[in-house]
Amino acid sequence: MGTMAPQTDRPGTLALTAEWVAERHGDSPALRFRVGGGWRDVTFTELRDTVRRAGCGLIALGVEPGDRVAILSETRPQWTYAHLAALAAGAVVVPVYPTAGDEEVTWVLSDSGASVILCEDDRQVAKAERLRGGVPSLRRILPLHALDGLAEGSTGTAAPLDDGLLAELLARAESRKPEDVASIVYTSGTTGMPKGCRLTHGNFGAVQDATVPHIDGGLPGDTTYLYLPLAHLLAQLIQFTTLLVGGTLCFFGGRIENIVAELTDVRPTHLPSVPRLFEKVHAQVLALAESQEGGRERFEAAIALGVRAAELRERGEELPPELREAYDAADAALFSLVRAAFGGRLRWATTGGAPIAPQTMAFLRACGLGVLEGYGMTESGGVIAVNHASDFRHGTVGRPIDGCEVRIADDGEVLARGANVFPGYHHNPDATSETLDSDGWLHTGDLGALDADGYLTITGRKKDIVITSAGKNLTPTQIEFAIQQSRYVSRAVMIGDRRPYPVAVITLDPDEIIGWASRTRQVLGARPTRHAAVHALVQEVVDAANEQVARPARIRAFVILDEDLSVESGELTPTLKLRRSVVEERYRDRIDALYAEAAPSVR
């Protein structure tokens, strides 16, 4: 499934990005970011000038074409400057998660053969210096602000550039070819050290060719708000796409807790996000409704009406006159306020990385916010399938992008093939041969299905299959997702491999539990997770989730942890993927205790 795409108007390689966008978009705002108490705009021309200065600075440091330049930083404008500058200098960019532990950072730097690392600040510089002994290839460690042109407030025009260095930079950028490696992106492995995915300029170009034609934006004033980590490929793709179409890339201020406030300030037209942000907004609005007598019923009625109105709009039909008054009232009391919370101009949002709760999608759809799901992995250049404004089906991740074929193997695994698919792992031919077959098909490791119209649905992970001691094959993601649809639950982890039946490890959303306790007048004490009323609440959630799955997959017992799973503890990868084996090992005693009790029956 999938067709070849015509090439869109874009630079031949990523190395030419800064020059190309400046030539076309000039004095339009390219970047927006916080400076002091306000926001500052940088034009496409200023972006190019800063990238030139930083690129010349890298050449002056001795960076040669093909050298690995690592970037260790949170999402900020200096990341984008350094990224474009390194590519223009002919280097290969190696993103490093700032949340990664010492062992993982050392591995990424040494395995990639990084010769230069650009760090966000002095704290990250100290971290890199501490690990330097384990990275023989590393020649230079410096903070981003030390690279020419990247100091805070720099306009990139402080002094004339050296003509020789600039000529060398431009020549290098012109000489890059589509088959050249642009980046080595390390996937956050759920077992073992991450593998480095070699991604070429051509891989990135294929994704742009397939996705840019569907962008609803690119006009002066259109703004993409970016808080996702630029160490992740999805954020990098959004960065390139926004700049190519002439939109403004607005960087969050650095504090996750300020995102909602910044959205009302920035008023973006596009918001890429993980599902959690949307689910939190949904939960907060629902909690507010439930604080009023009859509020839950009115809320659900309004959402049902809003979804019906959305369905009619999508078919090009009008809302019947008899429903107009009720819809206008719901819009004034609820829908418009939610749109305002996202800034009031949001035309579309994208979500990926994890499934989003159907009730949250219905809530956003009712409020007039188009949230589109997509699917991909680093090995596929970031995208395999995507819904877009002119072609979407709710409940799916969309159709395969143009230029990418998708088929489902006999065992249900999703396979993909196309110009977007990577050429292989860095220094790991065995892993490459396991992932890419001789016909060029990428074995994603995900289970899925294609419907009659070619829309793809992802149903689970092949490696996550749990086989009970009775020989039952269970897909944990289905029951985990069903439990996590509750706003009171942060994470649910099924355990049951080689065990008689499945149980679960569950963590709670502390804010939602506090709100629930206040509404129900519960005094939870110092350890709310051990309170009988909290256990009963979670039991209700588990019982409801059990009704959505087959009997063998139903959770017989559960344990509630006092704290959420985290990257720091090793239970989650830097991209927040679950390390199931770590969770099972860390909480083995409490899990064993569940099985030591008499097995409770489930309906």
Summarize the structure.
With 603 residues, the chain is of the alpha/beta class. The protein has 19 helices and 25 strands.
CATH C-level of the domain at 14-176: Alpha Beta
| Computed Rg | 25 Å
The first-to-last residue Cα distance is 40 Å
Strand order of the largest sheet: 11-12-13-14-15
CATH topology of the domain at 14-176: Rossmann fold
Runs with pLDDT <50, length 5+? 3-7
CATH architecture call of the domain at 14-176 = 3-Layer(aba) Sandwich
Beta-strand residue fraction:
15-25%
What spatial form do the alpha-carbon principal axes imply? globular
Number of helices: 19
Q: Report helical residue fraction.
A: 25-40%
Q: Any idea what the CATH superfamily of the domain at 14-176 is called?
A: ANL, N-terminal domain
Largest sheet: 5 strands, mixed
Structural commentary:
The chain is α/β, with parallel strands linked by helices. Among the domains are: 14-176, Rossmann fold, CATH 3.40.50.12780; 465-596, 2-Layer Sandwich (GMP Synthetase, Chain A, domain 3). The protein is 38% helix and 19% strand. The chain has 19 helices and 25 strands. A five-stranded mixed β-sheet has the order 11-12-13-14-15, covered by helices on one side. The chain has a four-stranded mixed β-sheet with strand order 2-1-10-9. The protein is globular. Residues 3-7 have low confidence and may be disordered.
